[in-house]
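User: ok so my PI wants both of these folded by tonight, can you help

Assistant: No problem, let's get them done. Here's the first:
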Amino acid sequence: MRVSARADYAIRAAAELAAAESSLTTEALASAQAMPRKFLEGILSVLRREGIVVAQRGLGGGYRLARSPRDITLADIVRAVDGPLVFVRGERPSQLSYGGAADDLLTVWVALRASVRGVLESVTVADLASGSLPPEIAALVADEAAWENP
């Protein structure tokens, strides 16, 4: 599974907004997370359309989260910028069917989607911004093998 730059930047921007005490400009967000400003502008536009952030114009304007960071999961953000969490050949696993020796592959793809959903829906922007991830996330990375690329 790959996480797009759009999803990575969107989550990082949301974490910065959660940690901020007031609205932040695109420039401030881009600078805080070392992201390309123009690319971030497009991401923020999508997040605004999807109801994750709100924009305020004028002096003191910028972006802020549209609701409490405790109510925004990382899954919400990924879905907003990239669509469904897991695609196989551009389709949702539930739309696929296999036969023969690959018949159980559908079960594997659905299990993958459930696993990804379980992680991304259990972490909120508030968790990320506060550095207080849920215990189930810590348990997943406690094994050193989780950090290795075989």
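One down. Here's the second:
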Amino acid sequence: MTEVASAPAVASTPSVIGRLLGDLAIAYREVTDHPGLDPARKVQAVLLDDSVGALMVLYTQSHLLDLNRLADLIGRRMTAVAPDRLQLLLDKHGLSLLPGLPALTNSPCLYEEQLLLQPSLLISAGEPGILLEIPREDFKRLLSNASAGRFGVPLSTIELNRDHAGDDGEAITQAVQAFTARRIQQRLEATIELPPLSESVRKIMRLRSDPEVTIDEVTSVVETDPALAAQVLSWASSSYYASQSKIRSVEDAIVRVLGVDLVINLALSLSLGKTLSLPKDHPQSSTPYWQQSIYTAAVIEGLTRAMPREHRPEVGLTYLAGLLHNFGYLLLAYVFPPHFSLICRHLEVNPHVSHSVIEQHLLGISREQMGAWLMGFWEMPDELAIAVRFQHDPDYVGTDAQFPNLVCLALRLLRSRGIGQGACTPLPDALFDRLGVPRDKAEAVVGKVLEAEVLLREMAAKFSQN
């Protein structure tokens, strides 16, 4: 029995696709999408455009679409069509996803020639979870008016450093030197020229490490920074915290609503965020930076409280790991400004590929490596650096594994609800077992957080204003 034959058939192909394939006399059968299918047989379709016009590009999910190679091949620098324009096309045909069918659009088509090495291809039926298996000879007829070329990069050739965090500093230095005109040996911090931490950040970090910290000390530090004080008051007055009366002072906000731990973590995250500002460019349809951070932190807080008390890490520190998990994204934009836009464009046309793989391919380093290095450089708690570095590894069992495990679980659960970027991948039972949180209880945590989605967005918007 083949891998496709073992998957249950689902007869839910949209009528417009069925009629189109019928008119073209293309044989197909319906297959349920699942992780066990060979990505080398799954066709990824993307619609690109530039000032000349649109182009449909087809390649397999075992490859990354390299826009630089594509530009060299066709002499045009193309990017993904705007989401609203793509949505108009899909709505016209009553579809949710773009199938790899050139006849569906009026634009020319270019396909990766390695597509036709497979005995049969799997294309989206236009709806999530449903694929159409088409024999190679029939698929060739679909491409009769298309052009072939080599522009994809096999994902198997892009190697990530998943384990050796000690090598990250050298890797970042090499990546920076690869994009600078002066290829000289320098210390990493001199090469990157990081902005120094503000005095308010240093004070907050000292408070964080003091187990005897008092409300008066926290109030004093917050009040010395007018912008930070205004933010704390704004948080405390937010509908999310449902304060019963007007908040009149920072001390009021800490004592009656937020608490010392939350104020310190939120203040530290906001102050660090101001050190490296949000990039003006970003991938289309991506979840806004602070929105992703707030959602992740809220889910992690719920997951941490759901853990058995005897194995539960410090809630405040896991919450902070959620707020700072994507800080490497800001550093990436800061260190590689001319190339950050190129990363964004590749993220748009490779939705099946993780950002880490794309960054490794283009820069030789990932945002997780850079973010973890920065946490160490700024002398943040080791648990934060580990959480950032190994957040996408569900099998990580090293030092302080609870922290990256919680971030990984929160990100995957949110992604399954349409929040975040990248492909949805299954969560192993072992991850839930290590944390001591049953799968249904974890799903309930996410559901509860998303019930307050509007209020969380309001809170994220307050971060973005600074």
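The radius of gyration is 24 Å. The longest strand covers residues 43-49. Good luck tonight!
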